[in-house]
Amino acid sequence: MLYLIGLGLGDEKDITIKGLEAVKNADLVFLESYTSVLGISRESLSVFYGKEVLEADREMTEGAEEILSLAKTKNVAFLVVGDPFSATTHADLILRARKEGIPVQVIHNASILNAAGKCGLQLYRFGETVSLVFFTDNWKPDSFYDKIARNRASGLHTLCLLDIQMKEPNLESLARGKVVYEPPRIMTISQAIEQLLYVEHSRKQNILDEEKLFCVGLARIGHATECIAYGSLQQLARYSFGPPPHSLIIPGELHFLEAEHLESFRITKENT
Amino acid sequence: MLYLIGLGLGDEKDITIKGLEAVKNADLVFLESYTSVLGISRESLSVFYGKEVLEADREMTEGAEEILSLAKTKNVAFLVVGDPFSATTHADLILRARKEGIPVQVIHNASILNAAGKCGLQLYRFGETVSLVFFTDNWKPDSFYDKIARNRASGLHTLCLLDIQMKEPNLESLARGKVVYEPPRIMTISQAIEQLLYVEHSRKQNILDEEKLFCVGLARIGHATECIAYGSLQQLARYSFGPPPHSLIIPGELHFLEAEHLESFRITKENT
């Protein structure tokens, strides 16, 4: 049996009762550790559950053979930060398990896709979500720009998910046949805005005005130290959000209740 | 103190540990009972928590005075099916609490907006969500049609949330100054498709072809008896999904992994 269990966003107590019961009954517990970041360590989860939590890194998760082979004869709990359906790779794992005749149970939880509503923007007024990945010297994908433009033209909000690279292989080493991992890095709001403005300056369609476009920065949503701020891109880029994970929302048209809610997070001289 | 606590989608065990702790510490516990439906009764929650769970109906929730007044001196837990940010009215409650200086803590959970990913469609490839309300003889709002058309033109999926009317006043009685409530009704996939096709037949833009457009019906997602089926609108309208809550997804362009996942839910002669 394979349990895919969402952990929610903050700490060990964001798991559901159903999820915790499945962990307690599991013979083996894995934590998927590369598509998202929880507010606490894997070791803290082990202490809370009273059983060892093993790391499932990118190779193990995407390869999946070891997990599926274990799930044929044992109860395997596969823990995912947020909701199990927040990343393509988990949907793939479920499909492969089903094909091999392994029973799968999914235990849902909050993800940033719904918890983003905390800033007061209505979730049903969001358009397509975009992902911003770290630019490199020769790879600066900018398809997010057209998606943001399209959402804004329809009056819709855009949630920007920011890159999390926990265990990326160094490409130069890989080309020499050697697997060396880059140090982990997680994109901040400030870095995201730098990349947004880089694309605005090259595309010049006046979608992202750094002074006039007011956006929402979200840091550590669901953690005890979560932080939400509303201001111009320029203000947000300078604001002290503290450690990641961060997300950014580019609002569309605002309903008066949304506007009122956002005002309560407005950056002022006092809170900068 | 006001706790807004998401209950998730299925039963009493979908609450998080953090949520359950807040309920246990609360002086008063209310269940918001009109924007959504859990798989179990309010009484079952009372038994599970070992304390009385009071009903917060539409008037009490939207009025909010009683809840806010209690939260000034007591710990009040306000339970919401799904996530607290799935309905505008909860965002309004938070705003009003903050204005009155009442501390608010939100405890997130899964909502249909992310659990819809269970059918295998990627959540970041959804466009604007639409809500279908029950048509009446003289009120047949059809703005969803343009939104679905816009999403499909961009290759995006559309989640259709179906109407839940738990305690609607009868308008004729209201006009005579008397409040009489209609019996509760929750829209099924079959009723939703009937309304979609009604609008297609009057607008004739060929967005919703009842034989050629393949969609996803979702019933009781997160409940033990959940049901997902993939087929033409005609097939879905006839399929036995069992009791509500139901939702419907109108897919946009499919990634091959999405298509593979949907095929596993395909309606065949055997499972009709």
Structure characterization notes:
The structure is a homodimer of 272-residue chains. Chain A has 272 residues and is α/β, with parallel strands linked by helices. Chain A has 2 domains: 2-110, Cobalt-precorrin-4 Transmethylase, domain 1 (3-Layer(aba) Sandwich); 113-263, Tetrapyrrole methylase, C-terminal domain (Methyltransferase, Cobalt-precorrin-4 Transmethylase, Domain 2), CATH 3.30.950. The first copy, chain A, has 11 helices and 12 strands. In chain A, the strands form 3 sheets. The first copy, chain A, has a 5-stranded parallel sheet with strand order 3-2-4-1-5, sandwiched between helices. Chain A is globular and about 60 Å long. The mean pLDDT of chain A is 93. At the A-B interface, helix 1, helix 5, helix 6 and helix 11 of A face helix 1, helix 5, helix 6 and helix 11 of B.
Low-confidence stretches of chain A: none
Task: Please report the total strand number of chain A as a whole number.
Answer: 12
Helix/strand class of chain A: alpha/beta
Shape of chain A: globular
Strand content of chain A: 15-25%
CATH-scheme architecture of the largest domain in chain A: 2-Layer Sandwich
The largest contact between protein chains, plus residue counts on each side, is:
A-B, 53 and 52 residues
Write the element-wise H/E pattern of chain A from the N-terminal end onward. Answer: EHEHEHHEHEHEHEEHEHEEHEH
Spatial strand sequence of the major β-sheet of chain A: 3-2-4-1-5
What is the name of the CATH topology of the largest domain in chain A?
Methyltransferase, Cobalt-precorrin-4 Transmethylase, Domain 2
CATH class of the largest domain in chain A: Alpha Beta
Q: State the oligomer.
A: homodimer
Beginning-to-end CA distance, first to last residue of chain A: 50 Å
Helix content of chain A: 25-40%
